[in-house]
Design goal:
Blueprint (H helix, E strand, L loop, with lengths): L1 E6 L3 H9 L8 E7 L2 H11 L3 E5 L7 H11 L4 E6 L4 H9 L4 E4 L4 H34 L1 H15 L6 H10 L7 E10 L6 H16 L7 E6 L3 E8 L5 H18 L5 E6 L9 H12 L2 H4 L3 E4 H10 L8 H14 L4 H11 L7 H21 L4 H4 L3 H10 L3 H24 L2 H15 L6 H8 L3 H12 L3 H19 L4 H7 L5 H12 L3 H8 L1
Helix pairs in contact: 2-3, 6-10, 8-9, 13-14, 13-15, 13-18, 14-18, 15-17, 22-25, 23-24
């Protein structure tokens, strides 16, 4: 709707303009009048007109003085001056306040009609253009994060030469990226496990990305999805020191750990040095990637700074080359003697890995060499390595599939402790003691979920060997013993208490009442309810 304000001190001319022109046909839906410049200024503040037709000379305040003030709060208004004098100085003053036109009285209807049509046409075009501009601005703002991400991804992946610096800063400024301060790049890599597919991984990655972007205190960080299993965080700070960005990195790690409780995964965060220029983003990415690769040596669940790794490498003293095969031979001797505990085995493994070469393929070859020679040694002693530990081929597969050196160390240590414990017990005839310990655990903890792996960890045996040993000594399997124990306890509760059937099941280790009923009937030849009715 176009609004018109007529400012004229002559009553006859003002009424004539208002009433004898068909403004509605000309597209003007609201017409207001004012009797002088002061009144016109007040009416303009309330109306915010699109067009003003005003006399030039009026008492109190001239039309030109009025126009000067109106364009301060209504800059798009089209002002048409009318005057009975062809005064060049007045026309010049009118042009200085951006008058749209200047008419000489008496006003001719045809001339005024043509001018108003032209004015309304221009106003419509301007309003449409303004709407389009607003849509473009809105669209730009809605897609700003995406555009920033694509621009930064290009810098990270391809890099730019120094000749492109001006172009980079122009684009960065257009995309509202902060140009003052320091930057740091953090690469967050994830391991979602072997059982997830690429679609599930992508979904978890989107959850992580959304979670990080939703945190208000990370407003100075831009998060980008790295293809595959990673997120890149570009951190901005106005402070030159390391403390502020290091604090943000720790908070990001806390958020990732929180999300990990809902979505099972492992992570490592590699962090670059501080840098001041966006054209160094490619270098910063290389630094953060180098830091993140330390997961092979250090394992997941940590922050690694590129600067710390450089300092550690520079500070490490030169030492005599180690002989890992000699350390392996010593370790096999100690394990076969049955005299190695977990602490000593871990120390010997570290000696084996004392070489500076931490390439994962090389480390895997050392562990395979260890297990192969241990198996040969035990065969020569008339012992079955497979019986005590695991199948040799399965061990080799687990070593090869391990993604970090700490994972290999934990796995290897567990097997070596089991073998050493077996050899020590055999030497001292401690099998009866082990069986007694297992029975004590079963009788104390029958209410809890108990697995063969859990029991083998408690007595430092391999699950396979424990299963065989228990069956030889007790002439019954561990699972059968545990089931009989639980059913016996259930019978006592059914006879001596008024607990509900499902409560009795829970108290003896069966969370699923249907399964409890099936097992009970299989052993007692009647349901728990029938048994209670018979013995109450």
């Amino acid at each position: 709707m176009i609004k018109l304000l007529i400012v004229e001190d002559n009553d006859f001319e003002r009424n004539a303009l208002q009433n004898y022109m068909n403004w509605d046909i000309l597209g003007i839906r609201q017409v207001e009048t004012a009797f002088n410049g002061l009144d016109g200024l007040e009416k303009a503040r309330a109306l915010l007109p699109d067009i003003i037709i005003s006399d030039v000379k009026m008492p109190g305040m001239s039309g030109i003085e009025m126009a000067k003030q109106i364009i301060q709060f209504c800059p798009q208004v089209k002002i048409i001056f009318s005057s009975g004098h062809e005064d060049v100085s007045l026309m010049q003053e009118a042009m200085e306040v951006r008058a749209f036109s200047y008419l000489i009285k008496p006003l001719k209807q045809e001339e005024l009609t043509a001018l108003i049509k032209k004015t309304t046409s221009i106003l419509v075009d301007e309003k449409l253009s303004h709407v389009e501009n607003n849509k473009m601005i809105e669209q730009f703002n809605n897609n700003l994060r995406y555009l920033q991400s694509k621009f930064l991804e290009e810098l990270i992946v391809s890099g730019r030469s120094a000749d492109d610096s001006r172009s980079i800063y122009v684009q960065a400024n257009d995309l509202k990226l902060r140009m003052i301060g320091m930057y740091r790049l953090a690469l967050i890599e994830f391991d979602f496990g072997e059982d997830t597919d690429i679609f599930e991984n992508a979904n978890i990655l989107n959850v992580i990305l959304y979670g990080l972007e939703s945190v208000e205190r990370f407003k100075n960080a831009i998060f980008l999805k790295k293809s595959g299993k990673g997120v890149i965080a570009l951190l901005h700070t106005l402070v030159k020191g390391d403390e502020e960005s290091a604090k943000i990195v720790r908070e990001i790690e806390n958020e990732i750990e929180r999300l990990a409780k809902e979505n099972s995964y492992k992570y490592i965060i590699g962090v670059s040095d501080l840098f001041a220029n966006l054209d160094e983003l490619h270098l910063a990415y290389k630094q953060s990637r180098t830091a993140a690769r330390k997961k092979v040596e250090l394992g997941y669940g940590r922050i690694v700074y590129y600067a710390d790794d450089k300092e550690a490498t520079a500070a490490s003293p030169e030492s005599e080359p180690q002989n890992p095969k000699a350390a392996i031979s010593q370790m096999i001797d100690r394990v076969c003697e049955g005299e190695s505990n977990e602490e000593e085995i871990n120390r010997l493994i570290q000696c084996m890995l004392a070489e500076p070469n931490k390439n994962i393929d090389y480390v895997q070859s050392l562990f395979i060499y260890l297990f192969s020679n241990l198996s040969k040694r035990m065969t020569g002693m008339d012992e079955s390595f497979e019986k005590i530990a695991e199948n040799e081929i399965d061990i080799f597969k687990n070593v090869i599939n391990a993604k970090t050196i700490p994972d290999m160390i934990v796995y290897t240590s567990k097997i070596l402790v089991s073998v050493s414990s077996y050899m020590g017990r055999k030497r001292l005839n401690k099998d009866d003691y082990i069986i007694k310990e297992i029975l004590d655990i079963l009788n104390r903890e029958y209410r809890e979920p108990i697995t063969l792996t859990y029991l083998s960890d408690r007595v430092y045996l391999s699950p396979n060997y424990l299963r065989i040993l228990f069956k030889e000594k007790m002439e019954i399997s561990i699972q059968e013993y545990l089931t009989r124990l639980r059913i016996g306890k259930a019978k006592e509760l059914l006879k001596e208490t008024r607990h509900k059937i499902h409560e009795v099941g829970e108290k003896v280790g069966y969370e699923n009442s249907t399964y409890f009923n099936i097992v009970f009937k299989n052993y007692v030849q009647m349901t728990p309810g029938e048994y209670r009715n018979k013995h109450m």
